[in-house]
Amino acid sequence: MCGIVGYVGDKDALPILIRGLKGLEYRGYDSSGVAFIQNDNLKVIKKKGRIKILEEMLTADGYLSEGDDKPAQSDIHMGIGHTRWATHGAPSDENSHPHLSENGRICVVHNGIIENYIELRQLLTEKGYTFISETDTEVVAHLIEYHFYFDCNQDIFASVREALLEIEGSYALGVLCTDFPDLMIAARKDSPLVVGIGDHENFVASDIPAILSYTREILIVEDNEIIVLTKKDVKLYSVHGVLIQRDPIHIDWDSEAAEKGGYEHFMMKEMSEEPKAVRSTVAPRLRNGKIVLDQFPLSAEQIRAARNIHIVACGTAYHAGCVGKYVIEKLCRIPVIVDVASEFRYRDPLVDNQTIVIIISQSGETLDTLAAMREAKSRGASIISIVNVVGSSISREADYVMYTAAGPEIAVASTKAYNTQLACMYLLAFEMSHLIGKISDEEYRTYQDKLLEIPEMIEKVLESRSEIQRFASEHFNADSIFFIGRGLDYALSMEASLKLKEISYIHSEAYPGGELKHGTIALIEKGTLVVCPLTQDSLMDKMISNIQEVRARGAVVLGITTEKQTRASEVCDQVFYIPDVDPLLAPIVAVTPCQLFAYYMSVYKGCDVDKPRNLAKSVTVE
Ligand code: F6R
């Protein structure tokens, strides 16, 4: 949802900005731009399209030298950059960031949404300001300029503060002003922002990997804070101007983890990392036959007293929650409600201090999820979060955070994060049900052993990926693909269908196996592809009937089942076998062939696998 980056220091700023933007491109890639001060003027270079186009423009203008990251000229030591995911106004050169103020002496990059921008735009228009873009961001540039001359005595820090006090909505901002050629200002509310602290250089960025090759000392910026950066100094203030002391955190993971490492696409690299990611999520939490969740805040009494458990998330993380519902209800016998975060918040949910809320988010920054979590917290619920990005907003605000050890996930389509979210759901369900005495010590230990076997099973699936590739090569021209399943296979089908549509642009729907005949089966015709996960032994007979129903209407069926399920081959046109996994744990293994299927369909169709159209990795607008 847009990425921003800023640099001030001794080095040449433009290669650093471009490299940072490339790292942030997953957040949005409709257009990009940079701004810097040169000869007392703000120079803005921006363009619709990918960052490659911006880079070519900078090279053509002599700001970067051809073929490498080295600068052609070295008098630019401070600048801000932006990569956009359009919200207000179509992707275009005019709507690209940075945006200049009326007199061109202040400029702004922004991630988020200014909710009262129409009122502000009207107010500024009445004061004589003109707008050249359709964006909500341009009002910020003008508003800062207005305060700069009207009531802030040409003090840029005070002007930014005054503007922020009038703005409603979410923002991560970077601001430059020609009157302060050595100083950069940034601010945050409900959109991620970090500061990188270096030696005679400082950075701002929407995420840590964007600047990790320059510094590992990271200051996490909280909501309603403003940062003033020079090359020697970083000062953090509240929006009311009170100086805040906060120590940076040291990041010990590697920037290489966020690079492709020889794979053609991040998505393939990330699927290949699933065994390791699941192992790293599970193994450190299993000690001497026990699941160790350090400082887990819920006692057996609190769990028993819970009226219900809400799982709240978006997209793929929501689908991980759907699996969690089956598992927790089965093992803990507590009702579980799974909610899409954007719906939860506005339906006056039945949540109080006897509710446990589980929040799932890879990024930890998804605004809908964050807002839902705050809503649940304000109603007194205990918040357990499952998050991948360390130090993200959700991880900081939840009562308890269980980190998934997936490592950076760059491809827009989530893969390894889902497997690790499921791993956490299982750990949580096993631990809670054992705590309240719903499973025996022996079952508790057996489940742990089974969880430890999962990485090897995923490895086996990955080794057989050529079978999925061949299947995709025969079907990538499909117009529409259905996924049907029962129980946990239905929960899995929803994720499989989402993965396929988001990266291959093929229409797809996921249906409970028994529900299709209540309407949707009308869409099945000769040659329609239907994919059926068949991992739930107890539901096999029913699923076989449902497969017969679609085949009788001409469907071609791909079954995804365990090695022991020999009956699948009798009813499916083709079968992909996964290792024999306990049905309760099956989705964490069976999702991988579904992800591979989506991947190869996208590759055969010639789509941009890692950056599918209209999407962005981190959705920080509502
Ligand atoms: C799909 C995908 C999205 C995210 C969703 C939530 O592949 O990645 O559906 O799962 O936007 O994101 P997080 O988990 O960061 O809250």
Describe the structure using short key phrases:
single chain, 622 residues, alpha/beta, Glutamine Phosphoribosylpyrophosphate, subunit 1, domain 1, Rossmann fold, 3 domains, eight-stranded antiparallel β-sheet, seven-stranded antiparallel β-sheet, 19 helices, 36% helix, globular, binds fructose -6-phosphate
Summarize the topology:
Blueprint: E1 3-9, H1 13-24, E2 31-38, E3 41-48, H2 51-60, E4 78-84, E5 99-100, E6 106-111, H3 117-126, H4 138-150, H5 156-166, E7 171-177, E8 184-189, E9 194-197, E10 201-205, E11 217-220, E12 225-229, E13 234-238, E14 243-244, E15 249-250, H6 266-272, H7 274-282, E16 286-287, E17 290-291, H8 300-305, E18 308-313, H9 315-332, E19 336-340, H10 341-344, E20 355-361, H11 367-378, E21 382-387, H12 393-397, E22 400-403, H13 416-435, H14 441-463, H15 465-475, E23 480-485, H16 488-504, E24 507-512, E25 529-534, H17 540-551, E26 556-562, H18 568-571, E27 574-578, H19 586-605
Parallel strand pairs: 18-19, 18-20, 20-21, 21-22, 23-24, 23-25, 25-26, 26-27
Antiparallel strand pairs: 1-4, 1-10, 2-3, 2-4, 5-6, 6-7, 7-8, 8-12, 9-10, 9-11, 11-15, 12-13, 13-14, 16-17
Helix pairs in contact: 3-4, 4-5, 7-13, 7-14, 9-13, 9-16, 13-14, 13-19, 14-19, 15-19, 16-19
The structure holds fructose -6-phosphate.
Fructose -6-phosphate binds at residues 314-317, 361-363, 366, 369, 413-414, 502, 619.
